[in-house]
Amino acid sequence: MSYQIVTDSACNLTEETIDAFGLEILPLTFMVDGVQHRSYLKGEKTDLRQFYTMMREGKVITTSLPNMQETETTLRRVLDAGRDVLYLGFSSALSGTYEATELLMKQLAGEYPDRTLCAVETFAASGGEGMLVYLACKKKEAGASLEEVADFVRETRDHLCHWFTVDDLMFLFRGGRVSRTSAWAGTLLNIKPVMHVDNEGRLVPVEKARGRRKAIKALVNHMEQTAIDPANQTIFITHGDCIEDVVLLESEIKKTPRLHRVRRELRRPRYRRTFRTRNACAVLRRRAQIAPLSAFGRFFIARWWRFCACAPARGRLSSNLFSFKK
Q: How would you label 188-217 residue by residue, b for 16+ Cβ within 10 Å and e otherwise?
């Protein structure tokens, strides 16, 4: 039976990828100076750099879940067309988007008894969520059923590895991720946190590096140590409008003999505690669980993101790396 893959704009996939797979995207929203904006508009190229420019200018930005009335309209349109729904959602540890959408789907299931509505939490965000959605679409293209794709995502999500770093700890403080003392001390010592997302979708500090360049190299080192079959998988890189860091990160990855296939994405705004400038992240498959940072290390950087904000006066952003693990 025909089915539609639905996800939210936190997946950070490009418009070209979204259109190529025929995805339905539920756009998260954000407010700037009392004006509501959507992080994704179907058929339009989202001007993400304008969003990050507003952050640097010190604009007050608040975020919200997708509009549930619009979400219901989207789901009903799919169901009325005779298609089932597979929703792959943003980590509930970082946003209420998945829980709200899952509840709505349960309500709609009673009205459409002949349709299948399946919600699967990715326990991921940004390029990590995007990678799972991308792979799910590939499975669908290969002829997999809704149930088979859902099972694939459930089996694969615990092997997804997000590696990321942020440039300015003051934005982690503003997002409630670190104390004022930790942010101040870390900034004074030029500490850059290296973090990942655990199997419950939470942000976890793993290491601290002195300086931006060392932090980016640490992303690559962790990726190389934990990745499985890296030569045959594609690495996703997302960033908060810091293309120069992406170039550095990509070059470091390509210096590593086993790592070379890379996709870049610019991150969309998601929710208050995760968006920031100068964030870089990469995603890949990993081999084993990752040990969290010590209590002493947490004094300086505590917890991350998912994607957060950054110092507008300095205009620095962040980088993220995504792949798979065992």
A: eeebbbbbbbbeebbbbbbbbbeebebbbb
DSSP state, residue 154? H
Kind of pairing, strands 35-38 and 29-32? antiparallel
Q: Is the dihedral of CA 201, 205, 211, 213 positive or negative?
A: negative
CA distance 322 to 127: 6
Q: For the segment 242-280, what is each residue's pLDDT rounded down to a tens digit?
A: 888 888 888 888 887 665 555 555 544 443 333 344 555
Query: If you count them, how many residues does the chain have?
Result: 326
98 DSSP assignment:
H
Distance of CA 20 to the CA centre of its chain: 20
Strand partners, 33: none
Question: Looking at the whole model, is its pTM more than 0.85?
Answer: no
Tell me the pLDDT tens digit for each residue of 118-166.
Answer: 999 999 988 899 999 999 999 999 999 999 999 999 999 988 888 888 7
262 burial class (0-12, 13-18, 19+ CB within 10 angstroms)?
A: middle
Q: In this structure, what are the phi and psi dihedrals at residue 260, rounded to the nearest 5 degrees?
A: -155, -20
Quick: pLDDT tens for 47-78: 677 777 877 787 777 778 889 999 999 999 99
Residues 6+ apart with CB under 8 A from 236: 127, 128, 130, 131, 134, 262, 263, 265, 282, 283, 321, 322, 323
Per DSSP, the three-state class of 138 is: helix
Nearest alpha carbon to residue 315 among 266, 263, 244, 247: 244
